[in-house]
Predict the structure.
Amino acid sequence: MPPGNSGPDNGRKGRRSAATEHRAKTANEAARIARKLKKDGHAPPFGDATSGVMLVVESPVGPRVVDALRRSLDSVGLDAYAVPSSTGLLREMLLVAEPSILVAVGPDATREIDSIQYPLARRQFSDATVGALFTWTAGTAGLSLPPLAPALDNEAAKKRFWRAFLALREPAMAGGA
């Protein structure tokens, strides 16, 4: 065997797998977008951009909304990447995250997703039933949720949001997105 190619790794010692490289690239791009959003005065995204689940949250995205989303996700055992709507960067964030489930939190987020006119979309979010998973693209399910902010202070709005949110429990129980 030639020097440097000894052993079963064929000289690849120290190299990362393709999956690891992809996760690192995605994390780097997500961090770049977060810095841009912060610089432009928007709420930064939170969560794992490689989770397969992306939530587009209508503005304003304050600390109470973020806390409620984190608790809701924890309760169904799901990791997600949550991004604010109305930033002008939604198409770019979708390309970075490549979600298998895309969730619109509130009607403003629904309109924002529809407004990018994603070329592979089979159905508009505005045509979907709130709380029911649907095929958005060949590889991405969609879910439209009611707005979260009113649910923080109104019991009826909280029940409506929670009933719709529970549609994410099935993918979580199946091992995530």
